[in-house]
Structure formats: structure tokens, C-alpha cells
Amino acid sequence: MICDTSALLAAYSADQQYHIECASALEHAQRRLISPVVLTEIDYLARRILGRAIALRIMRLLTGPEYQMLPYTQQTLVAACDVMATYGDLDLGVVDASLVAHAKEVGSNEILTLDQRHFRAVRGLDGRHFKLLPFDMD
Questions:
Q1: Exposed, middle or buried: residue 54 (CB in 10 Å: 0-12, 13-18, 19+)?
Q2: Which of 11, 15, 35, 104 has the fewest other C-beta atoms within 10 Å?
Q3: Closest by CA position to 3, among listed 49, 70, 54
Q4: Domains along the chain with CATH numbers
């Protein structure tokens, strides 16, 4: 599953909405994939919302062996720009669009996110709807 900023922040901060659900989704994930652009966004938001110490704790957790860092290439950015253009009415940013591009690269349709507005509206580059965790957990 590809991990988005909102759900990772919720999973690692007990006072966030959907904390238990996001932590459970992470616990049951077979693989946890992280984009470098998500790391940048997590660092910024966690520092701003939760403070420097908690932001560092979250970053250290993401360096663990249960996470796999996805390569961010020029091709990833080109695909992300194509997604942003296709869904221009949603005003997708590069982070969300990059997750769609990464999903195609790794052949996944699972995204750990709290952003249902964007990810329910877009389809993966293979045409499938995304399975949004924790909301679509079986």
C-alpha cells in the first residue's frame, strides 16, 4: 500500500482523528511504500502541527525496515503532471498526483489516506478505482 501524509500523521499521533483506524491499517499492511514527496510534506506538517520532537519521532519510524522508499524519477514527475492536468478541476497537488503515478509504477491500487475527496475522484493510471485505507478495509 502506498502511504499518504494524512494517514501517516494520524497513525503516529494518538490525538489525530482516525488514529486507531490508520494504525490498524498499517499494522495489517503487507508492504508500506513511501514517496519522498510525502516525507517532505510529513516533516513540514508534523513540525507545524505536532512539534519538532514528534516530527522527528515519526521520521525515525519511517526509516524502519517495514517501509520501502519509492524512487522519485523524472518519469514519476511527468506522470504526476499528467494526472494534475487530467484532473485539473480537483486542483490536485504534486504529492497526491505523485501517489497516483507511484501506484501505476508498483502496480498497486491501495492508498493509505484520509483524503477521500481527491482519491475517490481519481482513477489509477491503469483505470481502476483506488482502495482507500482505512475506509475500505475488509
A1: middle
A2: 15
A3: 70
A4: 2-133 (3.40.50.1010)
